[in-house]
Amino acid sequence: MTSVQNIEIEKVGRESSKSTPDLIVTEEPLEIRLGYGPEASREQMTLAVTMRTPSHDEELCLGFLFGEAIISSMDDVLSVKYCDDLGTVDNHENVMRVELSPNVTLDPEQFNRNFYATSSCGVCGKAAIETINVTCEPLQNDSFRIDQTIFFDLPQKLREAQEVFKYTGGLHASAIFDLEGNLLAHREDVGRHNALDKLIGSFLTSGPELLKSSILLLSGRISFELVQKAVRAGIPIIAAVGAPSSLAVDMARDFGVTLIGFLGEKKFNIYNAKQRVSI
Predict the structure, then answer these.
(1) What is the CATH number of the domain that holds 89?
(2) Which tens digits make up the pLDDT trace of 28-42?
(3) Which of 89, 113, 114, 222 is most buried, judging by how many CB atoms fall within 10 Å of its CB?
(4) Residue 100: pLDDT above 80?
(5) Residue 143 has what pLDDT?
(6) Is the pTM of this model over 0.85?
(7) Phi, psi angle pair for 277, to nearest 5°
(8) Is residue 83 flagged as an active site residue?
(9) 9 lies in a domain?
(10) Residue 41's domain spans which residues?
(11) Catalytic residue (one of 61, 83, 121, 124)
(12) Residue-level pLDDT at 65
């Protein structure tokens, strides 16, 4: 399964139209299953279904589980792989099973609804904010200050790295930069929450400590769920080309996150913790 698909479209102008080939981004469901419990009596449950762009599915699962505080590190994970007993290739690539370590305590009753995450809104349907506020510690890293000029170049650096967006225009992106403005990694997806889960999941396997001295750049608006995921990962600075919501600002203030919105080539707004930016 690929991230893009070829289709034939009719391109219409004021004076003429023509048929032409085009590329569109792929959107497919991904079911996340968990295997858990003692070695002698393993159990399975379906935890979530999310609409995503196929790619980096292992990272998506890991990032999602980390953001929901089901796992704290890779020590809590035995394996992540596609289910290989489903009959068809299509099903095989749309269902992943995460085997949790026997020492992970999981109470299925705490998930009183099936997580269903659409590509647009992430964890829609949770009954109350209290049920999604996972345990996070306020961020303490105020030992660095970043020159304001570094931020102005970040959106262009991300755009240049977005290969799939370049051809389809249909993707969100999340990126991690170091404190000098160097792009360390980025991920794309039809869902902005999925893009961030993939990104955080990639660092869980390669170096989660790097996130604690980094800048997260989002290609769209800032929702409180994205701030929550960043706080959970220990990311001290979140910047976005769009606006934050009121709950996003509240959460940034509660946990000491530097929050930057409307980031462009010449300006940006700081909504919280401006001490990390040298103006």
Answers:
(1) 3.10.20.10
(2) 999 999 999 999 999
(3) 222
(4) yes
(5) 82
(6) yes
(7) -115, 125
(8) no
(9) no
(10) 28-131
(11) 121
(12) 95
